[in-house]
What does this fold into?
Amino acid sequence: MQPVKPAPANAVPGIIETLSGGFEYVNRVLWVVAIPIITDLFLWLVPKLTAPAVFDQIRLWYAQMIQTYASMAGGDVDPSTLDQARQMVTTFATQAGHFNLLTLLVVNIASVPSILPPPRESILPFQISTIGALVGVVVATQILGILLGCLYLGVIGQQVRDGKVVLTKLSRRVWFYWLSVVGFIFLAIGLSLAISIPIGLAVVVIQLVAPGAGVALLFVVQAIAQVASILFLLYLFFLVDAIIVSEVGPIRAAVSSARVVANNFWSTVGFIVLVYVISLGMQQVWMALSGTTAGTLIAIVGNAYISSGLAAASLLYYKTRVSRLPAGSGVLGRVSA
It folds into this structure.
């Protein structure tokens, strides 16, 4: 029997070790789970904020557009296609009209984990009646939600990076994290428009000149867009982790995240798959528990702890890998080996 060789001292932890380490870090700052717990209690106990009248206006406006298009096209439009379009818009408007806009607080790229508890039916919802108010609520909830998420992840990130939490330092740095995340969103929107508008115009022109070639080109563009979206989500999986751990701006964070994934591709894929499997599995458990008041409370607390452990594991995974990137390529951020 040959003796087992010990792992090198500088070896990065494996996926299971990283997950275990994430929960160990959370246990040292267990109070941080109060942030997702309070957020979920807020969404559960506060009345819904909906906008059925606004989405009904959008439905009527779209129905008028369909009618105008049908009148201009004459008999070249299939009536069943128009009916299907109207039905889809009606279904969307109905579902969107009942959507709780306050849940946008926890739906962003730096969000606080949530089970999205449905508000109690005994509480009547507040309703928005104008498009301007709807836009204002969407923008406000996103801005506040990102700030809350940066504060939450900043606490865990400090513990993972520095081994302790200094709230005075965090109170200054959280604004940088917030600006970096918001800046990335604007950069992503601008880049998407800069790419999609010229390509869209080119496809339209080609369809007018050569319809057959235009359809084929549209299919190719859609396929490329789907592949690009998958790669975008994969290589920027650690974007927020890079902003918080490395304390860098959005562009450097995006590059750093991509380098970590590229240098640890299959390990990263395995880590992401495992995190999503755990998250989706626990989501089913929380949904099963949410049928009663006691079950909802258990689900809120359980989700806060487990999701915090997974968030810490993601930060730890990024930290241990970014410190081993080749120095010749320029290690981004302030994390050193």
